[in-house]
Design brief:
Oligomer: single chain
Number of domains: 3
Strand order of the largest sheet: 6-5-14-15-16-13-17
Number of helices: 14
Number of strands: 19
Bound molecules: flavin-adenine dinucleotide
Largest sheet: 7 strands, mixed
Strand content: 15-25%
CATH architecture of the largest domain: 3-Layer(bba) Sandwich
CATH class of the largest domain: Alpha Beta
Length: 428
């Protein structure tokens, strides 16, 4: 009897776990090499259970949700029925988008028309939202260019498009690839209203991905090697031959190798591949989160996610799933802010918190000691028009036996959990 084909996956983030699932389902024997102690890659938690930064998902993250179902953790999210957003303005006034139960996209239009805003502002918002369905702009267009072309007014930009752009693209509108952004919105506001629903985790990512991932690998007899891969070697006929680990050991008995590591690491490990030259040019975009212990008085909002209008450099306030009651201010595309030190980030966060929620007793005592700052310098790739041409396709490469996966590959999605999961779901 022919033995099972085997695959060696490098990287235990979402792309690597998704690739493990795909290959198991296709009957492969799977080995996974991960250099860190935790699975889950860029979605991880510290020893206290505080996440490295808030991660939310959308109903349209179908590949990621398939992975969650395989891990048994799809239930660990607070799910809405459709896109629901709460905006908070300086001083604490708020505005809530709560679309009614109508087919998509009517639900969204009806939700916008019900907003507590002047009629003209609501009409502009509806016009702006409908523009998403107009023909896509040419390649190279930024979202800011598209605002000008489609005459999207400032309020519509700052209420609707800019928060979504930061959340999905992790760059500012004047940098964002308009085509990729608009295509993503079309998916989110497409077939059903559930597609655009925001899902917030109710457990730390170490529980959702790491612990559940480890059990999943064990149950499916996946060999999980805790090691860093230092080099890939080619055979004489230029196919992939072996990998060398940090301790000098070599692994060579596999039929396929899936490289599921971030762009810079992929370029270093496979300098001989076509994708390496382009991967080296991909720019990263950072995310900074500042987390506070529970406020000393009841917090006036119950929503797990608030969009802060004019809160730059912070755009969202999220309830951390753990430790209980902690709040996190999130700054996407954070390089823009040019804030260098942890101390300066805490100062900025305290100022922002007080501007939106008042100087009362909401802040913890001695916040400088109790706040946590987490800066993820390479949180995502910067989804700019230039980078669109640098992303290789996921799946087989021109090197015999070498496959690619990762949020940076060209999946049609920005650099997200869904992009990562989709890249690993390339048919085995
Ligand atoms: C703070 C923050 C907030 C975010 N928020 C969101 C969000 O709200 N929604 C969303 O969709 N996305 C969000 N993202 C992006 C999302 O986390 C990533 O797109 C996704 O996790 C990438 O998965 P990946 O598997 O492609 O890469 P990674 O998660 O980077 O996984 C790669 C793995 O490879 C391992 N590795 C690297 N080199 C080697 C080596 N040489 N040998 C062995 N192992 C190696 C790494 O340790 C890592 O575990 C956020 C990211 C951050 C940092």
């Amino acid at each position: 009897m022919r033995s099972k084909p085997s695959v060696l996956i490098i990287g235990g983030g979402v792309a690597g776990l998704s690739s493990a699932l795909t290959h198991l389902q296709a009957g492969f024997r799977v080995t996974l090499i991960e250099k860190r102690k935790q699975l889950g890659g860029r979605a991880w938690s510290d020893a206290k259970g505080l996440d490295n930064g808030p991660h939310v998902i959308l109903g349209c993250y179908h590949h990621f949700r398939k992975l969650l179902r395989a891990l048994g953790t799809e239930g660990l999210f607070e799910k809405e029925e459709s896109l629901q957003l709460t905006w908070v303005f300086k001083g604490g006034q708020s505005l809530r988008l709560r679309p009614p139960k109508l087919p998509s996209p009517l639900h969204l239009l009806a939700g916008l028309i019900r907003l507590d805003l002047p009629l003209k502002a609501r009409i502009c918002l509806i016009k702006g939202t409908l523009s998403v369905r107009l023909p896509l702009p040419p390649p190279g267009t930024t979202l800011q260019d598209w605002f000008v072309k489609r005459k999207i007014n400032r309020d519509t930009q700052s209420l609707f498009f800019v928060p979504l752009c930061r959340a999905v693209m992790n760059v500012e509108a004047d940098q964002a690839d308009a085509r990729l952004f608009l295509k993503t919105l079309r998916v989110a506001f497409g077939a059903s209203r559930k597609e655009g629903a925001i899902w917030c985790p109710t457990a730390p990512w170490s529980q959702i991905l790491h612990r559940a991932g480890a059990l999943f690998l064990e149950k499916n007899r996946v060999e999980w090697v805790h090691a860093s891969v230092k080099a890939l070697s080619l055979s004489q006929d230029k196919g992939i031959d072996s990998v060398t680990l940090g301790n000098g050991q070599k692994r060579s008995s596999f039929d396929r190798l899936v490289l599921a590591v971030p762009w810079e690491e992929a370029a270093k490990l496979a300098p001989f591949a076509d994708f390496a030259t382009k991967a080296k040019e991909i720019q990263s975009s950072s995310i900074v989160s500042v987390s506070f212990p529970p406020p000393r008085q009841p917090f006036p909002f119950n929503e797990p996610l608030l969009a802060l209008v004019g809160g730059e450099p912070f755009h969202f306030l999220c309830k951390a799933p753990s430790p209980n009651g902690w709040l996190t201010l999130l700054a996407g595309a954070a390089d823009h802010a040019q804030i260098q030190t942890q101390e300066a980030w805490i100062e900025e966060a305290l100022k922002c918190f007080q501007t939106f929620f008042g100087p009362g007793k909401l802040l913890p005592e001695s916040p400088h000691q109790s706040c946590r700052v987490r800066r993820e310098a390479r949180a995502t790739i910067a989804s700019t028009p230039r980078i669109a041409g640098l992303r290789p396709k996921p799946g087989p490469t021109e090197i015999q036996g070498l496959w690619l996966a990762g949020d940076w590959t060209d999946t049609g999605f920005p650099s997200t959990l869904e992009g990562a999961a989709k890249s690993g779901a390339f048919p085995a």
